[in-house]
């Protein structure tokens, strides 16, 4: 049996909400309050955007014996798949729910100040959860596009985030306040802003700031030591804004490769170290590195990597079943490894090899480029398969630059065979909540560009 929270005292702060501290005592009272009001059924889809409500809802589900569903997206198609996977699912939400294809339950009102169990001196019995209890299904996108479920038990989640707390240097005598720009439903946000706080005596901010000014405001109001849990996209946007930045004790980044120059800029701007986290939905977090000064990743205690069947497999530690990783990895020994790129990102053009991740880094170093991403089109790759030719596309946000200027800079950085054809200028890239540009979104952008180009050509014909 493992405790819901590990804080040493019931009056310790577990969250900050609207500038006010939330004690462990009050959190536990809210959890029991919501648990008693959950509807029948075994599954809950926790769609709460407020990080505190999400944490209460997840914990209430565990206390009531419910399993949380945590998909990476909430598209109608995904929700239909989840309804088939778990027909007794209820959506727990603090937002609009009229058009959801699943039964919805508005998040209950939290307890008022002075309610039984919320005041200093009231009894506070920390709930204990069985280590083997299945508490969540997390989902990845399979090859067919249908969500693929992965089970998460309480004991292995606790093992994972306690190891993370140690890797990030959490100090019991001075617990940090975590400010997260990533949603709590995403595996990274789930582990690194909610669970890591519950299991390491820390506190999390209930908000989810997205714009630079909001991130700065959240850090300024967060009690020291404040840690920013974010992504390369949010970091770059924040630094490019040119606004004053408050000090931070630590920066943490994940969800996409972090360019070295961006890591160094961030460390200098915040006067704080930056640690990058490596992991996946299937494995959880398994390694860290200080990206500004080292290339090798250091594994969490107990994690094992092995090369077999033309893949690198992760096992042991908090990983329930051995998992093949989607990346090209070079093992260094002593619990360290080098990341060479994602298997799905590898590009081979007339015998020359590179990765989309590396190309993206080169594009983002072009002066004047605010955002950008390369894309390997599905239809074009199939069309040119016999000719063994791949035509990459790229999307770029670069006010004040034209295609000739961007391509001229790229020729100084990459082989000409990898130059994008076409190079598509946008006002902004439609990235998702974790800063990624989903493949389906990129395909839609490219299809729209081709349609517009075809229409313009037809208009030019006599």
Describe the protein's architecture and organization.
- The protein has 2 domains: 2-341, ANL, N-terminal domain (Rossmann fold, 3-Layer(aba) Sandwich), CATH 3.40.50.12780; 350-460, ANL, C-terminal domain (GMP Synthetase, Chain A, domain 3, 2-Layer Sandwich).
- With 462 residues, it is of the alpha/beta class.
- The relative contact order is 0.08.
- The protein starts with a strand and ends with a helix.
- 30% of the residues lie in helices and 26% in strands.
- It has an 11-stranded mixed β-sheet, with helices on both faces.
- The longest helix is centred in the C-terminal third of the chain and has 22 residues, at 439-460.
- Helix 7 (232-240) links the parallel strand 13 (226-230) and strand 14.
- The model is unreliable at 380-388 (pLDDT under 50).
- The chain has helices at 24-35, 51-63, 76-85, 154-167, 187-198, 212-221, 232-240, 260-270, 356-364, 378-383, 403-411, 439-460, and strands spanning 2-3, 13-17, 20-23, 43-46, 67-70, 90-93, 104-106, 128-129, 134-141, 147-153, 177-180, 203-205, 226-230, 250-253, 274-280, 284-289, 297-299, 304-308, 311-315, 323-324, 327-333, 336-342, 346-349, 352-355, 371-375, 393-397, 423-425.
- It contains 12 helices and 27 strands.
């Amino acid at each position: 049996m493992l405790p819901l929270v590990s804080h040493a005292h019931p009056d310790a702060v577990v969250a900050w909400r609207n500038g006010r501290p939330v004690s462990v005592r009050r959190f536990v009272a809210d959890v029991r309050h919501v648990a008693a009001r959950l509807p029948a059924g075994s599954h809950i889809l926790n769609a709460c955007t407020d990080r505190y409500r999400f944490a209460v809802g997840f914990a209430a589900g565990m206390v009531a014996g419910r399993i949380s569903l945590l998909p990476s997206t909430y598209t109608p198609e995904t929700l239909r798949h989840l309804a088939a996977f778990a027909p007794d699912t209820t959506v727990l939400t603090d937002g609009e729910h009229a058009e959801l294809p699943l039964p919805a339950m508005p998040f209950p009102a939290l307890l008022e100040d002075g309610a039984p169990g919320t005041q200093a001196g009231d009894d506070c019995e920390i709930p204990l959860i069985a280590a083997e209890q299945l508490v969540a299904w997390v989902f990845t996108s399979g090859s067919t596009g249908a969500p693929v479920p992965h089970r998460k038990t309480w004991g292995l989640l606790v093992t994972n985030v306690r190891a993370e707390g140690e890797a990030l240097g959490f100090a019991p005598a001075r617990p940090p306040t975590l400010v997260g720009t990533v949603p709590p439903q995403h595996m990274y946000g789930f582990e690194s802003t909610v669970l890591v706080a519950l299991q390491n005596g820390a506190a999390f901010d209930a908000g989810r700031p997205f714009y630079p000014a909001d991130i700065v405001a959240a850090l300024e109001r967060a009690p020291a030591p404040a840690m920013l849990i974010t992504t390369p996209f949010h970091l770059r946007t924040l630094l490019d804004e040119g606004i004053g930045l408050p000090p931070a004790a630590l920066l943490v980044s994940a969800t996409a490769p972090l360019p070295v120059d961006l890591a160094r800029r961030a460390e200098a701007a915040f006067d704080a170290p930056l640690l990058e986290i490596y992991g996946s939905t299937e494995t959880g977090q398994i390694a860290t590195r200080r990206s500004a000064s080292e290339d090798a990743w250091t594994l969490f205690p107990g994690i094992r990597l092995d090369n077999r069947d033309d893949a690198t497999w992760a096992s042991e530690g908090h990983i329930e079943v051995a998992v093949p990783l989607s990346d090209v990895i070079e093992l260094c020994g002593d619990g360290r490894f080098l990341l060479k790129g994602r298997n799905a990102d590898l590009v081979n053009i007339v015998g020359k090899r590179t990765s989309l991740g590396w190309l993206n880094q080169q594009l983002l170093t072009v002066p004047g480029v605010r955002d950008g991403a390369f894309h390997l089109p599905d239809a074009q790759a199939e069309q040119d398969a016999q000719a063994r030719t791949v035509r990459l596309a790229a999307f770029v946000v670069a006010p004040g630059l034209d295609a000739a200027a961007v391509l001229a800079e790229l020729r100084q950085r990459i082989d000409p065979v990898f130059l994008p054809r076409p190079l598509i200028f946008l006002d902004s890239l439609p990235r998702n909540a974790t800063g990624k540009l989903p493949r389906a979104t990129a395909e839609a952008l490219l299809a729209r560009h081709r349609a517009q180009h075809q229409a313009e050509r037809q208009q030019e014909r006599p």
